[in-house]
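Lab channel / #folding
Pinned by the channel admin:
"Please post every new chain as: sequence first, then the structure tokens as a reply. Keep commentary short and put observations after the output so the thread stays searchable."

First post following the new format, from NK:
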Amino acid sequence: MAGTTKEPREPRPTSRGWPGPGGGMVGYVDPAPEWRGTTVQVCGLWPFGAGAGTPMVGVPLGRDLDSGATVCCDPVSWFMRTGLLANPSMFVLGRPGLGKSTIVRRMALGLSGYGVHPLIFGDLKPDYADLIRAIGGQVISLGRGRGNLNVLDPGESLQAAARLTGDARRRLLADIHGRRLHMVSALVTILRSAPPTDREETILSAALNVLDDRHAAGSGRGVPVLGDLVQVIKDAPEAVRSVALDRGDITRYRDITENLEASLTALLGDGRLGGTFARPTTEAMKLDRPVCFDVSGIDDSEVLLQAAALLSCWSYGFGAVSAAHALADAGLEPQRNYFLVMDELWRVLQAGRGLVDRVNALTRLDRQRGVGLAMVTHSIDDLLALPTEEDRTKAKGFVERAGMVICAGLPPAEMPQLAQVVELTEAEKRLLVDWSTPPAWDAAGGRRSDPPGLGNFLIKVGSRPGIPLHVDLTAAELEVNDTNKRWHK
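Reply from TO:
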């Protein structure tokens, strides 16, 4: 109808407030606050609560890359408190520089707060020494001119055996003998790149028994060293000659033991290993605190010495843990739990044929012992690069037996081998490959930016879907997490 006027529309509020002058509309709406709580705490807020989807038990590692929820995880807590793992162990894989040691350090720090002592058996860079010092632990330095670790020194085990009686004492003494025999055989294997023969191991075992009798309590001779073991073989006592099968001919005995004597002599002061394992132990390991064996003083060019140092630390440390548990079982010491870290696993495995068996014997820890284990290496290729099919199969078993596998960025060529031991979806494979992409060049800053996969990890437990997460370090952790100190002014 002509001439009619339209009545003004009544103003209505929008989702951002009242429009118009003085209305008070906002340009940005804050997201609704979120809280996390148990079902008992938030049951009255239904239906506004949502499940997190990841376990809230264990060391807080970081945030889930999909949901943003907090991810708590460590092999000890997931085994003891949730039953998610069949055994308290994990295997960590990933390209260098993406944070493998960082996530293990986070677990070690968190577990120390739970009363589980971290034990670092061979820190090559070092990655863990500053952390262990910061939490009041013991750092033992090894290497040429730095410190020695006598492979015949039972450490706390002998003192523990003296406090025990009956079967418990006999079991611990047998364990001491077995570990020392394994360690001497392993050092011979590293020097020869081949294990000693069955006859040579039998001779070593008999010689160690004679050595124990010579250095028994009250003899005043103290702890034996490798030089004393060589002297026993030279002395040709009847107990050693009988297992050498020399048929009563001393000349035949000298011929049988010549190669073994030469290998053991090479382990002494003038040998390739510089006497690091043939001299008295510089500093004994303590069982009531975190411990780190710092072997960063050994140059990367000394491959054999590095492998020998790592294997010696593992053997010595596992023996100390066995002694601690024997005392706890007898009620003489409180029960302690440990988190063992075996970093740079590939260095030992590739040092010589037969070393896979040595590591295999060390890592088969009974889950009733209250010990969590973390094995760290770069890729499955490290395990498949071993010379024999038998060794490759055993090395793959380290991953297959692990309670959980944590992967950082990995190259595409790694996926077929990894899929043989870890069940991965296509989306998870793409995620790991994307994280391995090299860093881009930051034109504004004039330097490389951080790799896209830095701090990102995928947690796999059996056939369950993987949990992708990102680890951010706190200010306190950054102070003990600097692995580039040599580049600072």
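NK: The chain has 18 helices and 13 strands.
TO: also worth noting, The radius of gyration is 29 Å.
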